[in-house]
Amino acid sequence: MVDPRDPVALTQALIRCPSVTPVDAGALDVLEAALKGLGFACHRLRFTEAGAEAVDNLYARIGDRQPNFCFAGHTDVVPAGSVEEWSSDPFAATLAGGMIMGRGAADMKGAIAAFVAAAAGFIDDHGGKLPGSVSLLITGDEEGVAINGTRKVLDWMRQHGEAMDACVVGEPSNPHALGDMIKIGRRGSLNAEITIHGARGHVAYPQLADNPIPRLIKLLDKLISHRLDEGTAQFDPSNLEVTSIDVGNPAVNVIPSRATARLNIRFNDRHSAASLMRWLQACCAEAGQHDLTIQVSGEAFLTAPGPFTDVVAGAVETVTGRRPELSTSGGTSDARFIKDMCPVVEFGAVGETMHKTDERIAVADLDTLRRIYRLILERYFATQRS
Q: Would the pLDDT of 305 be above 90?
């Protein structure tokens, strides 16, 4: 078993498990063994659903009373890409020059190890008599479709009377240095696929066909030209991006029968997925016969600045000497599910190398992150007693 008090060794052990979504590859076994060694009660949760890969998850808790402070994260990683482009084996967890290199080092196995080490110190200092509970919610499906991961763990928690009162998600929230940024919310995300139908025909006889491409172009121009909003005090402006246009037509002298476009909308809290769906439906109706498919990855949410964000930001500033920016920038994370249960923020490693070749984390940052998480625990429970 890896020493749970050693974030370097635990980070390396986790990286050496090639847990590319949805394969666990032993990562949760490593983590579970470390947590059991500290006295955590561990629940391995495997969820399945038709049309999606089965996923292993872990919920671990020490303490049997509220408040329950939770650290959430994921052990799954994106593929390493071309191994030849890496300076060393992406799953060897090479330690050199004060850096641990490997897929998942920054996103986010290093943060998991740092929190485990912080929890170990917190438990030791309290002699096992905690002022509440500490838990970890770790999924193997954050980098994937997020169907059999955090969302279903939360459902399991509700069914089993498990509640959390505050949560830090260990995503790599810092752009350049620890202390740069805390994420206190995220914009929502909506994906749409629009197919405009026409009638196939010869390009020399357009009157005998119905070309769907001009109608699709006109529709996309209308969607792109529409300014959704100017942003808010806490959020960047919403934006719509066309990600694909396809007619599947290899012939140069044939008018196709259909044309398809895909788009994504990242939206702030001036909109909901439902309001954007209604807008898209109305715009598409003007384009004639069509199919519209919409998938919502998550709604916009905000953990308003207040006592909880003050605890986290204060701990970061005390340890690093930097006052972090409270931001809602970036893509989505599993915080979009957790916000339905409790206040949630994101704070983790430096994200400059996440998903890149030679992903890495500084050993010094691991220790700093451990100290920040430890201080967050101390101050969070102190505010709950006052």
A: yes
The rounded distance, in Å, linking the Cα atoms of 309 and 345 is 7
CB 268 within 8 A of CB 238: yes
Q: Is 142 annotated in the active site?
A: yes
pLDDT at 86 over 70: yes
Q: Judge contact between 119 and 60, C-beta under 8 A.
A: no
Question: Residue 58: which residues within 8 A CB-CB, separation 6 or more?
Answer: 28, 31, 32, 42, 43, 44, 45, 136, 137, 138, 139
- Rounded to whole angstroms, what are the CA distances from 233 to 27, 64, 171, 183, 293? 40, 39, 23, 14, 32
- Ordered domains of the chain (ranges, CATH): 7-186+300-385 (3.40.630.10), 188-298 (3.30.70.360)
CA distances from 358 to 66, 151, 173, 341, 355 (A): 41, 31, 19, 36, 9
Residue 201 in tokens: 């025909």
In the set 6, 76, 141, 359, the catalytic residue is 76
Residue 221, judged by CB atoms within 10 A of its CB (0-12, 13-18, 19+), counts as exposed
125 annotated active-site: no
Marked catalytic residue, from 107, 142, 365, 378: 142
Task: Give me the helices (H) in the chain, please.
Answer: 7-15, 27-37, 110-125, 150-159, 212-225, 273-285, 307-320, 335-338, 363-385
**CB distance 271 to 253 below 8 Å:** no
Confidence band, pLDDT 50/70/90 cuts, at residue 266 = very high
Q: Evaluate whether 189 touches 146 at the Cβ level (below 8 Å).
A: no
- Is the pTM higher than 0.70? The answer reads yes
Could you tell me which residues are beta bridge partners of residue 138? 58, 73
Residue 122: DSSP 8-state: H
Among the residues of 84-243, which ranges form H helices?
110-125, 150-159, 212-225
Q: What is the pLDDT of residues 100-146, one digit of tens each?
A: 999 999 999 999 999 999 999 999 999 878 999 999 999 999 999 89
